[in-house]
Amino acid sequence: MPENLxxxxxxxxxxxxxxxWKLSDGGGLFLLVKPTGGKLWRWKYRLQGKENLFAIGxxxxxxxxxxxxxxxxxxxxxxxGIYPAHERQQVKQRNLEALEERKRARESSFAKVAKAYLAExxxxxxxxxxxxxxxRIRKYLSxxxxxxxxxxxxxxxxxxxxTNGRGGLFLFCIGPLSLECRSxxxxxxPRLGAGNGVNNGVSGAIVT
Length: 208
Known about the structure:
By secondary structure, this protein is α+β, with helices and mostly antiparallel strands.
């Protein structure tokens, strides 16, 4: 069947009537013109012996070129036995899950978790001890880790540990920083503090 039968100008000039009517571009793609003036891209296809319609979007939000590209993408899915609408829903769900994961990561950044930890221990520890902990977190860890999710800190430090073959590492436990992170091991290479005095005091930077 012939495809790409009309131009963008023809799509724009299509007028509404008192009932729905279709303007076919071939290959199953058509423009559904509504009495209200709306113009909707639809693609007709067959899968598992049944005829189906895939809603691509409205014109002019979806251009003629974009509608044709969507038809080709949907056609490729149908060849694999996949319903285009189902795939779109799954992609949307994956995007939502990724968005939620990024949101959770932001909410569990080192800065926020460390702040919650300090607020938790402040009423418990002596003032001098609390100030020492707060100072060392702020001086040694916050500059490097404040914007990082807690889940990424282990990966960041893993590379650091692997590159130090001499075993010159400082291993500390921060805990409990949060309900999810009751005991978090952080490795700091001496070279991270080269030239800034970190090595002179980092051995006591974080204590439980």
